[in-house]
């Protein structure tokens, strides 16, 4: 489950209420594209903006719509007791695994973060993905902390941020993490523009933003990369450079939401306010990018 | 209300439940010390870690315990609709004002933040303090954005982060902000070590962490500073340099909680997990600091 392609669907809103029908439609596309797992309520799924009952709804809908595909559910929250309650909800609903980022308001120490994972994994009955996303959490894991946390019970995977673009440096980076964590703990790349490099450098799984909305695009990169065909994977990734450039400029969430809105997969203004979607002008650029790259197919 | 000394009490927990009796005790000390206002559920009051019903409890307790002293209530949350609900709760409970920081998970644009304040102030019936705390929100206001937001209805004050230590540079900084915002909008300094400099440089109010736990210490700095006696204010602030050094090292929240725990104002482990309190060794340093500076009196 913690290998291959894990696709992160958006959680679309409509007038500040979760649009469950649109969400189920997104998950159905992922099943059809044969992704290896669905991660609901990741950063792309706006988990941090949703309350407990909304998160329960999304979890249940994801599991129902995913059928045989395993569903991992994001359980991040600022307070440990809130995370534990969300873990319980996810387990009760039938999640195959959970994903946990160390959200911060006050700056965390390494001991705070270790304590969070220690407290949460102690109660778990499903595997956990450690979610290292410094762009949103403003916490930076050391490799030593990866190692300490990876030894905790139920830790199954670590989702790491983007790695160096140069293949040799990328491989060295993945090897350095690999040396710190038990063999059964998989290493997953995130940052879609770095996915091919990460998978070719030895990552076991791609935790993918764009894969949650355009799974065909993601499989076109992931399948050759996982099969060891570096050249084909690189060509597939490089062909989407304008998309990665847009992600770098506006953030992957806003661009992915604009694509989903443009394609009619979700309705306009699908992101939780105060996050505004792209401007009208920026949307025209996204629409052109969709046409140029053939993303509508 | 948005001038003088605004004191930010801790929201102490006890086994992950709000210790209302201890909280009321903290607020009673502030009333006795004649602070100008109490700001409940600021960063020091751990607002971001508490759910809506907990925040309602704390708001009601603060207003009851503060008697004639006006209470400002923090209403920050990640989603605009959550902020609006918290604003309504605060108003219903009788808050004299509200305090709003632009919490982030996804990186905010200036338009997102302006939109947040626009949406929230449109419904308000009490004044609002704009809370600029880049250390926790990871959002940086431009002076131009201060100006745009300060023109919105009900905006009464801006809580700014620490300013340059040099008095001339500090005065230039406060003047630059002052030139951007309407005359009736007060400017408040935060970062306790910068309070004397800020007040002497023309800030109207000190939004004080330590003032919420040790109000006598804060008034000893604020009163001369507000009366224009720069030398006396500076001497009072400089005398507490070891405290500011501890704030810089461990963060003001952890140090203030350790002081309150040491003095028996709250019970041990009063912070919301995953935030661990100071270590045993660090607590010994804090205890020594309390004795050396006479903070127990």
TrEMBL record, chains A, B:
A cellular component annotation (GO) from this entry: cytosol
Residues spanning the signal sequence: none
GO molecular function, one term: 4-hydroxy-tetrahydrodipicolinate synthase activity
Keyword annotations of the record: Lyase
Stored Gene3D superfamilies: Aldolase class I (3.20.20.70)
Enzyme active site: 131, 159
Binding site for pyruvate: 44
Homology family: Belongs to the DapA family.
Name of the protein in its database record: Dihydrodipicolinate synthase family protein
Origin species: Pseudoclavibacter terrae
Lineage per the UniProt record: Bacteria, Bacillati, Actinomycetota, Actinomycetes, Micrococcales
